[in-house]
Structures are given as structure tokens and as C-alpha cells.
Inverse folding.
RNA sequence: GCCCUGGUGGUGGAAUUGGUAGACACGCAGGACUUAAAAUCCUGUGGCCUUUGGGCCGUGCGGGUUCAAGUCCCGCCCGGGGCACCA
């Protein structure tokens, strides 16, 4: 008897909702907690495709497993609902982002429900709802009211900083700041409020500053660095330029060290940790100041190789460096100006593509404080304005780029490191002995670095310094669909943040989403929003998409709290996320911001844990197969001419363009035999009517104007398509909707199949062809409960053999779930069921707990069987079976016997046979004698329960 | 260039600490049932040789350690991802 997956699924979906089966309580605090989180989706109009659920299925299996093990499991879902796509859609269609977003959320919820996830929907978080973003705004104001104290190594309040300034100035303050001057208490107290606030903004964790930003004219907004790919916007591929604007920033660099060292204690993949480490980009070195001849200016450089100071023969500034104008000599002025102009005109892509060294001498000299030699000052575009101090001391002997530059322009090269003792070392290894460096001579590089740093500090010409690649995070977007920044300005530009009782600052309604083009958001046009009582004006920038996702995992703990972002008791109970599953595309944006916000809230005493995500799994992507047919460039008798992929290849035709076709027309999709048949041609023509009269030619025949004329006597009518692996995207017409697969095969089969495809972290192309294996498995399992159409189980005691198979399966599945190897769990189920069926197992004592074992993977079918077995309550709230070793004990062990490491025989010995008996008996076996005859036996290795190896001479 | 990954049959992939390579599936071939097909079930399936006992080769390539290497070490090659004039 077969089961009807559609009616079973509909029944239990409804039942689970009506009975709040998956609702989690914060009052169960006597139970141990476990928090399993998915990265919440952005609800795009395209809906979910088969790639999205991969991670959700894995986390759901794990959550269900932990629940059955007796944990109180928090497994929530929500939506990251603010962001550019909804606004772009609104610009094109006039549909309000709140409307399209909520429509999309409805679709997403339905698709997720089809998959049978055990989310507690009563905890749903939607980032664009005022009751949620009230707290996003509040955290922002909290960041504004704090600075990072490097003495305590944590965030401290600005008011305490103001007190310190008033009492003792800033000389004792060690903080993450861009303010470099010192002042006394008297000087501070004499400053005006505007001056004071200006200084404080250099300390605040949320602050405004003028900076170069990635301005995208086409989108009318500023983009974060990670939203710019190869000089164009990540969304839409529009050009991006550098523009000076006053912007809100978050001082994430204050937490650079804690973000870096915090990685050590996280169970994240090495790949992901490496990505964050690279992004933070910590490098130790020194900053050094060089006097400039005939000027009171100094050039400050950052170097990781202060030891090579005796080899520093010239200076290079970035073309945008502040001192360029001041230091350029009159003779060099024209050349320098032309160079700077040419650099600015070229886009970043052009600059990178060239890879050529270029630069100009500016006609000024600095002095090397160690050699006292003159160092010509150059500008060159290989020196970046945004890194370090925007200036370098060039050491052509020990830096490859400096070397190329010096060689090209004939600058002096002095060898200062003898690397002859390290013939295989690269420059990056920083090894060797100092030469030509006076008192440093003979020192190892490492020691020389320490020595130079010491001397430099003594002579007050620099200091040891740590530099980071990571920049402070731009936090303003000139767009409508985001959280308003809860700030207003008075007529002097002084900032007021909205207090908690006035939050949320709601996003006003409008129907005009066009960017203003002058760099302001559409909010700037809404007078009632901009003008506040008391002559204040509001900030009109909104927060970036990453704001809402930086703390949503905390809100799930207590989602409807209106007094706090979450109650203290909820935070103390749920603590942190035990398992986080999501895509690697968020490796540096979302995952870094979340860690930053979490650390900040921890510093302020709101959270019990410093790191938000203990264990992280990155699921791989499910790729699509792009199916194309070849369109020849030349028409045939005025009609479009398509040709079979095999013919194009065979004939070596180059004048053919692959045209992606909708994969639903393609038969044997994704295989080598993928093709269009007559029905396929007809669907294609209906889909693209401009090809109504096109000729479709392949080796078997020709399809033209609705008729198939065969060549020769072939009965086949198929046109092979070209298959390549790529993204699943609307653009390639290859999106597979999970709803369709579920309708055909069922949600349980879909879930197990996605898990069966391979390791969760690996990317793989979608291939529906082997889904039949999983489908057959579930049918077989179901059939074990029936005899001739009626449900029937035996209440007899299980046999030793049955228990052995069952406990073997428990052992394997438990072990593999714990290491997130879900594909091998599915294999283990198949093996277990195959073996139990072989011995016609129909015992309740086996099949009942086996159903619980399977429940996390196939929640619908197991729930139905649970009910058929007459059990009360849900199978998902029962208990996971325990594995007992005693059932696995073997009577005899099959030993492989090797001669010189090569397996030659297999022989059964009773379990527990002593080593010396094994040796003796093995040697007496006929098969063994054949190999040992007349040879000296040098050694016998016996590994109990594993193998026997006999080593013979010759 | 740097960092991180991965490379195993026709295909997806298995293989705790080094200990029977290819589990589990798909596909393919043959068979049963059927008027036929679908579905289902059974058997075989890494390659080569073979006197049908078995033998030789085999986890990207070349070396090495070991009684024993897909697994460890050294040197390469190729695919995927990230960063990239980062001083």
C-alpha cells in the first residue's frame, strides 16, 4: 500500500499550527536550552528556489534532534525586510515597498510551511516593523552615547569622558579616536559647545564625518565597500565613484582587536575565520616621521619593516596625499598636476588592469634620520591614500613594488638584509640578517625590528603601531526603505538623538521614492518629517540593510517585549546561538557587524555572552544547470536557424550563439542527453513567439513551422541542448521551485533528497534524477507497517539480528547528526531499512523507535505512522532512541589477512580470540600457506578486531 | 601574488585515531511479473588479464615515511571560493 503524501502533509501542517506544536516557551527554564538559528531571508519577489532550503533543512533536522533529546529548542524564523530591491521595485512599478514586502513574506511563509520546518512562528521578527526597528534605533543612540576606552578595553559612556575632560583634559585618555591634539581641563572648559561636540564626535562609536564614499549616481546612494564589486555596484552593476560627503559612521575599528582575537574561540570554518581575519587586516609595524628639506612639514609613513630603515632611499606619497600641493617644487608643478589629474580620471578598474608602475618626482627631499641621506619624494599610484598614512618609505631591496619602481626610475637600491641563509624564503617571510645597517648589522630581522622601534621611540620620530585594513563602517544611505536615523539637528548643526520614549521614529508614508539626485534621500522632500518642533531638522538618511540583521537573533528570545529589546531573564536563559546556519556570502558583512554589536551590548552589560554565534555552518550553494540551444548568426532563407549542440560541436561551427531556454521545456534536464523534443519545440515557440518560423535542425531531422521531417530512417526527434553549471537565476530560466518538487515527490522526500546530495558545506548542481532513490526508500519504509493493505505490526520480541541492525543504525545516525553529516545519515537509514526488510522485520519494538529516529528527517510520514501506531501526542515531542553497545557485540569477527600489506584472504575467527592464537591459526590457513611457502616469516601484526598482516621476506 | 578549500568508478558521493578503497544511491546491463508499458522485485556492475582457481593495476602527478597510506611528510599540477599595488 502506498501513501498519499499530499493529504498526509496537508493534514499535519494544519494540525501542527492548530496545536502550536512547535511553540517554545521561555518558562521552561528547568530544561537545558539549545538555540538553532538560520540566517533569515530577504523576501525577494522571486520566492524561494531549491537552493534556499538546503541550510534550513539541515538546521531543522538538528533542531528536531535536540528537541527529541530533551532540550528546550529555540528555532525561529523571520525576515530581513528593509533593503534596496523592494525600493528599486517600487521605482519601477509604483508599488509601495511595504506592500511588496508583505506580499513576498506571505509567499515565503507558505513555501517554508510546505517544507515542514519546526519554526516557532509566534516569534517571527520582521525588521521593517516599527516595533522591531524601535530597538535598532535605540541601539544606534546607545552607540552614539558611548566611546571605546582602550584602558578598560571596552565601551564606556561619553558622559564619563566629558567628566574626565573637564577635570584633567585628554592626556590620560586612551581611546579609539581620530582626535590627535592634547588639551588641558582648562582648555576644554573654555571651549564652546560646538567645539566640544566636534571633539566628542571623534570619540563616539556612532559619529558623523566628511569622508570619501562610494557614490553610485544611478542608484542615487552611497554604498558600503562590500556592496561595490570591481568598481561597480553589486546590485545592478552601475558605476561607482568617490565623492566627499558628510556621513554617519560606526567606529567598528575600535573593536578590531577583539573581533580578531574573538575568532579563536568560535567553532567556525577556517575559511570563514580567514576571511574575517583578512578583512580586519591587522599588521604590526611602526609609524615614522621624516623631516622635509626646506620645510617645517614632516611626512609620516607606516611600515611593517622598520628594520630596513637603512635601505629606505626614497619616499612615495599617494597622489591624493594632503602634502603633495605644499611640497611640490615650482619646476615640477606642471608635471605633478598632470599626473594627479590623469590618475583621478581613470576608474579603479582601469588602474588595476594596467599593473604598470607610474609615478612622478615632486621636486622635494626628505632626510633619512638613520643614514642622514637625502630621500627624493615621489608620488605614485601604487601607494593608496586610504591605507596607513598614504605614504611609504621605499625600500627597493626588500619590497618588490619598490624595487620595480626604483629600477624603472633609476633610484638608489641598498641591500640591507642578507638572505643567503634562507635560500627558500620569500620576502613575506621576513627572515635574514642585517647588513649595511651600522649598529644593526648581524641582527636577525625580528630583533632588528624591535631594536629600530626602540630607537625611533627614544628619538621621538615615530612609534610602534598597529594598522588595520578594516575601515569604519559607513552607516547612512540616501534611500527611503530603511530605518530612519533617530537624530535631529539645531540651527548650529548640533546633534540631538531621540530618547527611548520617543522611539520608534517611524518611517513616513510617501509615494515618491525617487532619489533627489543631490545626495539626499526621498525623506528630505517630506516637510512634516524633516521639520520638528523647536526649529530642529531631522536627519533624512536611513540605515543600511545590515542594521536590522545585526541583532535580530537577540529579539527572537523575547520578540514582543515593548520595554526592552529583550528581557534580562530571556537573555540570560537563551544566552547565545548554539548553531547558526547560513551562506558564506555574509562572511564579512553581517557576521562582522553582528559580532561588533553583540560585543558592544555585552560591554554595556545587556548581554551575558560576548560572541553571538558559537558554532557556524556555511551551507553550499545549489547551482542550476543552464540549458541553451544554438542560434546560428546567419538566417536560412530569411528564417532563424537553430542547430543541435552536437552538430555545432561536430561541425565546429563558430558563428553560433547559445540562447538559454526555459528548463521546463527540456527533457532529461541536466544530463548529457538533455534535449528538446517536439513538445519542447512547441513550448519554446509559444514562449518566444519571435522564433515561430525558426528552423530547428539536428542530425535526426528538422522541425520547421510545426512539422517534423526526419532525416533518414530515424524515429527520434530530439535536439540536444548545451548544459552548463551556473547560478540558479531568473536570468537563465533555470529556477526550480521547491513547491513543484514537493507537489510531485512530497516534502519528506525533498528534505531527505537535498540532504542526500552530498556534504552540507559543499556546492553542487541541482540534479533531480536520483531523487527516485530516496522516494523508493520512504515507500519501502511505509510498506513495512502494512500487510496486504492493512496496518499490522507484530508485538513479538525482536530478534538479536533485528536489534543489531537497529542499534547499528542509531549509532551511525546519532554520530553523523552530531557532526552535521546528513548525507551519510540518509545512507544509514537506507541501509538499516534494506537489512530489516531482508529479514522481514515487522516488530513494533523495532519500528516504533525507528520512526522516532527518522522523524527529524521526514517529519510528515513519521507523524502519520506514529498516529497509526496508536501513539498519543506528536512523534516530534517523544524521545530519541538510545543506542546500546550490547546489541552490537559480534560472535565472530571477519579478519582480512594481508601478506606484505596486500589483502589475500578473509577469515572468520570467534570474537575475543587471543592475539597469539590468531597468529598461529592464520599461518595455518591454506590461502596463507600459498603465500608463505618456503619464505621466511619476519613479522606478524595483529590489530584486534581489525586485521592481520604477515610480513614475509623476498 | 596571498589566504582558504577540494581532486576517489559512467555520475552524486562513503571510508573515526594510518588498518578490507568504492558504503548508500543514480545510471547501465541482464532477468522475473505483464498481451504490452509503467510500477515493483531479483542479479551483476572500478579497469585490464584469465586456464574461472585467481592474478595485476587502481583514490590528480612525482618522491618519501611505515608491516600497512585516499588518510602522514616533501615537491608539483588542476578545479572552486575569498582578498588583492595593504607598505
Amino acid at each position: 500500500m502506498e501513501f498519499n503524501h499530499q493529504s498526509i502533509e496537508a493534514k499535519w501542517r494544519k494540525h501542527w499550527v492548530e496545536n502550536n506544536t512547535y511553540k517554545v516557551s521561555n518558562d521552561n527554564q528547568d530544561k537545558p536550552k539549545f538555540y538553532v538559528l538560520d540566517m533569515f531571508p530577504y523576501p525577494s519577489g522571486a520566492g524561494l528556489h531549491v537552493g534556499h532550503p538546503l541550510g534550513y533543512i539541515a538546521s531543522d533536522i538538528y533542531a528536531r534532534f535536540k528537541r527529541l533529546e530533551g532540550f528546550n529548542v529555540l528555532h525561529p524564523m523571520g525576515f530581513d525586510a528593509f533593503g534596496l530591491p523592494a525600493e528599486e521595485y517600487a521605482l519601477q512599478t509604483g508599488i509601495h515597498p511595504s506592500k511588496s514586502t508583505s506580499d513576498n513574506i506571505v509567499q515565503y511563509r507558505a513555501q517554508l510551511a510546505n517544507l515542514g520546518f519546526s519554526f516557532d512562528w509566534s516569534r517571527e521578527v520582521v525588521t521593517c516593523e516599527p516595533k522591531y526597528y524601535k530597538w535598532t534605533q535605540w541601539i544606534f543612540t546607545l552607540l552614539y552615547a558611548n566611546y571605546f576606552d582602550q584602558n578598560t578595553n571596552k565601551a564606556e559612556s561619553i558622559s564619563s569622558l566629558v567628566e574626565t575632560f573637564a577635570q584633567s583634559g585628554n592626556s590620560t585618555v586612551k581611546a579609539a579616536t581620530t582626535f590627535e591634539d592634547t588639551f588641558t581641563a582648562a582648555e576644554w572648559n573654555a571651549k564652546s559647545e560646538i567645539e566640544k561636540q566636534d571633539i566628542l564626535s571623534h570619540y563616539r562609536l556612532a559619529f558623523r564625518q566628511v569622508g570619501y564614499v562610494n557614490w553610485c549616481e544611478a542608484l542615487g546612494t552611497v554604498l558600503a565597500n562590500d556592496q561595490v564589486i570591481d568598481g561597480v555596484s553589486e546590485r545592478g552593476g552601475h558605476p561607482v565613484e568617490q565623492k566627499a560627503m558628510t556621513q554617519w559612521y560606526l567606529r567598528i575599528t575600535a573593536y578590531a582587536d577583539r573581533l580578531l582575537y574573538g575568532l579563536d574561540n568560535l567553532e567556525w570554518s577556517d575559511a570563514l575565520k580567514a576571511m574575517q581575519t583578512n578583512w580586519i587586516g591587522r599588521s604590526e609595524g611602526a609609524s615614522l616621521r621624516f623631516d622635509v628639506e626646506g620645510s617645517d612639514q614632516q611626512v609620516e609613513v607606516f611600515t611593517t619593516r622598520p628594520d630596513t630603515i637603512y635601505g629606505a632611499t626614497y619616499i612615495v606619497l599617494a597622489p591624493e596625499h594632503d602634502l603633495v600641493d605644499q611640497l611640490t617644487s615650482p619646476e615640477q608643478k606642471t608635471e605633478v598636476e598632470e599626473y594627479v589629474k590623469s590618475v583621478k580620471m581613470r576608474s579603479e578598474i582601469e588602474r588595476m588592469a594596467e599593473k604598470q608602475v607610474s609615478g612622478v618626482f615632486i621636486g622635494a627631499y626628505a632626510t633619512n634620520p638613520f643614514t642622514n641621506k637625502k630621500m627624493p619624494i615621489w608620488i605614485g599610484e601604487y601607494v593608496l591614500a586610504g591605507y596607513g598614512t598614504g605614504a611609504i618609505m621605499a625600500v627597493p631591496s626588500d619590497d618588490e613594488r619598490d624595487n620595480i619602481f626604483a629600477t624603472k626610475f633609476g633610484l638608489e637600491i641598498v641591500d640591507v638584509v642578507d638572505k643567503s641563509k634562507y635560500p627558500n624564503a620569500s620576502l613575506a617571510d621576513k627572515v635574514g640578517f642585517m647588513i649595511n645597517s651600522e649598529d644593526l648589522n648581524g641582527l636577525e630581522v625580528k630583533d632588528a625590528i624591535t631594536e629600530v622601534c626602540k630607537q625611533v621611540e627614544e628619538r621621538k620620530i615615530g612609534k610602534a603601531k598597529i594598522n588595520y585594513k578594516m575601515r569604519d563602517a559607513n552607516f547612512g544611505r540616501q534611500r527611503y526603505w530603511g530605518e530612519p536615523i533617530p537624530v535631529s539637528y539645531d540651527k548650529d548643526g548640533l546633534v540631538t538623538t531621540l530618547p527611548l520614549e520617543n522611539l520608534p521614529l517611524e518611517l513616513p508614508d510617501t509615494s515618491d521614492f525617487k532619489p533627489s539626485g543631490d545626495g539626499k534621500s526621498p525623506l528630505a522632500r517630506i516637510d512634516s518629517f524633516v521639520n520638528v518642533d523647536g526649529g530642529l531638522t531631522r536627519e533624512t538618511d536611513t540605515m543600511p540593510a545590515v542594521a536590522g540583521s545585526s541583532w535580530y537573533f537577540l529579539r527572537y528570545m523575547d520578540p514582543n517585549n515593548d520595554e526592552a529589546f529583550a528581557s534580562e531573564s530571556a537573555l540570560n536563559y537563551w544566552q547565545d546561538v548554539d548553531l547558526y546556519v547560513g551562506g558564506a556570502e555574509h562572511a564579512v558583512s553581517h557576521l562582522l557587524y553582528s559580532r561588533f554589536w553583540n560585543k558592544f551590548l555585552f560591554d554595556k552589560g545587556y548581554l551575558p555572552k560576548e560572541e553571538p554565534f558559537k558554532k557556524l555552518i556555511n551551507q553550499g550553494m545549489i547551482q542550476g544547470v543552464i540549458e541553451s540551444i544554438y542560434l546560428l548568426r546567419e538566417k536560412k532563407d530569411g528564417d532563424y536557424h537553430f542547430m543541435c549542440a552536437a552538430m555545432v560541436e561536430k561541425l565546429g561551427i563558430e558563428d553560433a550563439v547559445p540562447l538559454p531556454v526555459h528548463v521546463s521545456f527540456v527533457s532529461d534536464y541536466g544530463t548529457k542527453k538533455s534535449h528538446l523534443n517536439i513538445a519542447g519545440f512547441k513550448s519554446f515557440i509559444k514562449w518566444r513567439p519571435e522564433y515561430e518560423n525558426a528552423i530547428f535542425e539536428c542530425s535526426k531531422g528538422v522541425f520547421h513551422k510545426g512539422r517534423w521531417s526526419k532525416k533518414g530512417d530515424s524515429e527520434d526527434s530530439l535536439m540536444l541542448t548545451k548544459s552548463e553549471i551556473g547560478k540558479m537565476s531568473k536570468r537563465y530560466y533555470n529556477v526550480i521551485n521547491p513547491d513543484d518538487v514537493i507537489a510531485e515527490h512530497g516534502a519528506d522526500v525533498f528534505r531527505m533528497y537535498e540532504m542526500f546530495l552530498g556534504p552540507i558545506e559543499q556546492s553542487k548542481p541541482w540534479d533531480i534524477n536520483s531523487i527516485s532513490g530516496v522516494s523508493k526508500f520512504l515507500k519501502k519504509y511505509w510498506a513495512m507497517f502494512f500487510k496486504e493493505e492493512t496496518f499490522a505490526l507484530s508485538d513479538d520480541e525482536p530478534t538479536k539480528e533485528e536489534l543489531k541492525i537497529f542499534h547499528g543504525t542509531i549509532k551511525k545516525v546519532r554520530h553523523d547528526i552530531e557532526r552535521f553529516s546528513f548525507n551519510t545519515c540518509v545512507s544509514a537509514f537506507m541501509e538499516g531499512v534494506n537489512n530489516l526488510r531482508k529479514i522481514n522485520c515487522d516488530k513494533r519494538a523495532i519500528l516504533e523507535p525507528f520512526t522516532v529516529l527518522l522523524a527529524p528527517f521526514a517529519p510528515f510520514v513519521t507523524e502519520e505512522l506514529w498516529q497509526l501506531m496508536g501513539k498519543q501526542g506528536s512523534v516530534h515531542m517523544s524521545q530519541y532512541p538510545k543506542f546500546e553497545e550490547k546489541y552490537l557485540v559480534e560472535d565472530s569477527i571477519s579478519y582480512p589477512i594481508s601478506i606484505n600489506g596486500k589483502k589475500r584472504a578473509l577469515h572468520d575467527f570467534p570474537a575475543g580470540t587471543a592475539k597469539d592464537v590468531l597468529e598461529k591459526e592464520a599461518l595455518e590457513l591454506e590461502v596463507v600457506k600459498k603465500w608463505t611457502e618456503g619464505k621466511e616469516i619476519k613479522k606478524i601484526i595483529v590489530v584486534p578486531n581489525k586485521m592481520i598482516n604477515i610480513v614475509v621476506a623476498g
